[in-house]
Amino acid sequence: MTRPLTAAQRRIVEEADPVTGRLRGSDAQLARLVLMKLAFRHPRPPHDHFLTPAGHRIREAGPPEEHAAQPMPTSPPVASAEGAFAARVGGEAPVQDGRARAREVRSAWQGLVELRRMTNQGGATDRPCAWERTHLVRAAALALEAAGCRPAEGDDGDGYLVAGTPQPEAVAVRGRGPDGIAGCATALEQAGWQVSEHAQPRTGGRYLLASPRRA
């Protein structure tokens, strides 16, 4: 990108679907974002436009004034703008309306499966897509919650915790409480992730390393 986004372009980027990155705007506006490598036009009908990884980074960084006032995050943010869906990685406040949350998770997962179909070679939906590889923590957390696994709530709640790791394309999944990480490995494998179980050197506690499967 050689020049700053206009107000209209930034609005289109910021209003992109929080899970799929699907964009809405005029043909000219979307074509310009494609030239700036912030969006791509899907080759199959209906030829919708989606954010590229660079576009997602622009969206998550926020307006320029906010970006200048805050340090760049070292991992994908786990909170979205008010009213937008955010994957629960563990440690958040308890959900007040479980049924509403279940609907949100189901809709977000369906949107992600559709993004796989539209962006993976051959329309494969059984393995993660490029968006998931650039949003590892959020993608793994969504896969877990969509499969019915329970995220840890607050500082002491039982359930899973997802975090980034120094390893490329890998997240760590830990568990609190008697159930630990039971069920998390199966959920991730069914969602197209490669999973291995490890022991922490000092405590002996078990945790998972998970990476998006490529084939």
Cα-to-Cα separation, first versus last residue: 32 Å
Read across the widest sheet, the strand sequence of neighbours is 3-4-6-5
Level of helix content? 25-40%
- Report low-confidence residues grouped into runs of 5 or more: 65-83
Number of helices: 8
Number of domains: 2
Q: Would you report the number of β strands? A: 6
- CA-based shape: elongated
Q: What share of the residues does DSSP label as strand, in percent?
A: 5-15%
Main β-sheet: number of strands, strand sense, barrel status? 4 strands, antiparallel
Helix and strand pattern: HHEEHHHHHEEHEE
Q: Write down the Rg.
A: 18 Å
Average pLDDT figure: 84
Structural class: alpha+beta
Region (Disordered): 46-80
Biased composition (Basic and acidic residues): 57-68
Quick recap of the structure?
The chain is an alpha+beta fold.
Explain this structure:
The chain is α+β, with helices and mostly antiparallel strands and 215 residues long. It has two domains: 7-69, no CATH class; 98-212, no CATH class. It is built from eight helices and six strands; from the N terminus they run H-H-E-E-H-H-H-H-H-E-E-H-E-E. A hairpin with a 6-residue loop joins strand 5 and strand 6. Helix 5 (98-119) crosses helix 7 (136-146). The longest helix has 22 residues, at 98-119. The protein is elongated and about 55 Å long. Residues 65-83 have low confidence and may be disordered. Residues 57-68 have a biased composition (Basic and acidic residues).
